[in-house]
């Protein structure tokens, strides 16, 4: 076999990493969500500089891929805030539900990248958020396997 067809490893070559999926949903964010995107970009830019100084091409490739993702998310971000006079659940609202066993849970409906249910941040595309949006205090919604009643709602800035 010809040597021309043998690919020898080369420390100066790094395979191009595929871009992270941006998703099909509209990139609606809270003001806090946009700040988090900006912070992530700043952290990644600093990390990229460190990787370049250390001549770490694999780390640089990974960071560049993540930077492309976060810059695209920033470019497509649409900051939205709830209408403070509305009496229905909407993007940015904080909602407290009560489950049949008496357990209360509170969530704020936020953008996709900001979602973290363990921290009470529910992406607007999550099934529970979809069932909450447009509802009012006193309404019953599907919450997993059970139903839950909306017992409180507020609109945060």
From TrEMBL:
Chain coiled-coil ranges: 34-64
InterPro entries, per the entry: GreA/GreB_C_sf (IPR036953), Tscrpt_elong_fac_GreA/B_C (IPR001437), Tscrpt_elong_fac_GreA/B_fam (IPR023459)
Pfam families referenced in this protein's UniProt entry, alphabetically: GreA_GreB
Residue ranges annotated for the Transcription elongation factor GreA/GreB C-terminal domain, each copy included: 86-145
Gene symbol of the encoding locus: greA
Keyword Protein biosynthesis on entry: yes
One of the protein's GO biological processes: regulation of DNA-templated transcription elongation
GO molecular function, one term: translation elongation factor activity
TM region positions: none
Listed name of the protein: Transcription elongation factor GreA
UniProt signal peptide: none
Alphabetically ordered keywords of this record: Coiled coil, Elongation factor, Protein biosynthesis
